[in-house]
Amino acid sequence: MPRASATSRPALSADPVLVAALLAELSGAPDGLSLPRLCKRLDARMSVLLRTLAWIGEGDAGGVRGAGWVRIVEDGARRLAVLTEAGRAVLGSASDPAPD
Question: 16-92: what fold?
Fold first, then answer.
């Protein structure tokens, strides 16, 4: 299945409010945030966070390609979520005023 474009929004099976909050948290952390820290900041369970990251991440989940907005990187024993350029483009397009 094709990946969503950088500015398109995929049909998500994830909570759109959580997705927006997750992208907002990551936008303020250019080096990424650890997954446990994201859970705490978002008041979300790890399983919910991982499911959401599967939908908006770079990998495949069950044969469905993620949107590519977030990358998971290993930093020693920690796993960090980092916003990708595609994710930044989505945030930028969401904050742009609508044309008249």
Answer: Arc Repressor Mutant, subunit A (1.10.10)
